[in-house]
Amino acid sequence: MDSAGNKEVMTAKEAAVFLRITPQTVRSLARRGDLPGRKVGRAWRFSKEGLENWLKRTDGERDS
User: Fold this and answer.
1) What's the average model confidence in pLDDT over 43-58?
2) With contact defined as beta carbons under 8 Å apart, do 56 and 46 qualify?
3) Residues 28, 34, 38, CA angle at the centre, nearest 5°?
4) Cα angle for residues 39, 24, 47 (degrees, 5° grid)
5) Confidence class of residue 1 from pLDDT cuts 50, 70 and 90?
6) Mean pLDDT of 33-62
7) For residue 18, what are the CA distances in angstroms to 15, 36, 41?
8) For the chain, which domains are there?
């Protein structure tokens, strides 16, 4: 489980690597409710499945 793509639950930094965006953008999208994630204490956590589903939805929106 060394790469972000293999983990079920990711930190903002790992999610950023997975999505190829900055951790700051990940946190900003999550705060706005545009990216699925949960705040655990002061840290954000993201599920791999949730991010993959989000990517599929956003890809479909661009195709419309």
Assistant:
1) 95
2) no
3) 75
4) 45
5) very low
6) 91
7) 5, 14, 22
8) 4-63 (1.10.1660)
